[in-house]
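fyi for ur records
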Amino acid sequence: MQSKVLLIYTGGTIGMVQDPETGALNPFDFEHLIDEVPELKKFKVQLKVHSFSPPIDSSNMSPKIWLELSQIIFENYSSFDGFVILHGSDTMAYTASALSFMLQNLSKPVVLTGSQLPIGVIRTDGKENLITAIEIAAAKQRGKAIVPEVCIYFEYKLFRGNRTLKYNSEHFDAFRSPNYPHLCEAGINLNFNKQYIRALPSKPLKLNKALENSVVVLTIFPGINSSVVKSILSIKGLKGVIIETFGAGNAPTDATFLNELLKAINKGIIIANITQCMKGKVMPGLYETSRRLQEMGVLNGADLTKEAAIAKLMHLLGNYSNKKIIKQLFETSLAGEM
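which gave:
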């Protein structure tokens, strides 16, 4: 029996073709996808296309669009075996992270992909990314999805979406998952690393719609001005802060700096600590410079990527009002993100 895959085109480089006369790049009509990628005719997959109109540049991605995407998947969930989202690469990791928290108990693949070169350009990476993403979304074993997760597929590798970050804007291998192994590698065959793929859930899909975007990222650097820290933490309506610290979660021990953090925490603002390092994790208390943060109630973000930390905090603040529960859940892996 053929698998059914819903292809959702949001926008991005992959959906562009070059005007032969002017050389300008223009979005093409994804209803005519087969014309651009005739290889899809050979697939034993029933493919349906849903296109955003107009297409969205990934720089304009927002929680509102995340909600629209999750709603499309939720409403079509019973009709398809998998979903492929075509998305601009710049904010793809943010979207993948958000969807991993919004689509709770996911038992079917949601694969985000895109390209560094438009699909209408001769040297495009878009065709391979698209074809393999569809193949992964359709892949089953004994009638069950092989990868029941929100993932990112790019340049022969499949990554867990909320473990992924964009690290290269120039080469085709644009993404990495520094703290978690890839889930699949595409060669002659699709080689799934099944020991790293999440187990199928026992509960039905639940859509978590609420997202609270009154959050901010505070990146620490040597010589950071305390008045800047104060102004950020005094933003009206602020509910959550992600602090990007040094190394294993270290920050200045300057009394003025620490006092501003403590005042914010006492006002009920949730503050979480993640590392600026691409690889590794926060280890509270390993050094004196992180112990102080731990003592005052700054949460441990462990090895969360910045993208996952932001999406997780938005999700928790949107769906829970009890600060104790929010703090507990932030330090708990909810979707394989830490």
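Residues 3-207 form a domain with the Rossmann fold fold (CATH 3.40.50.1170). thats all i got for now
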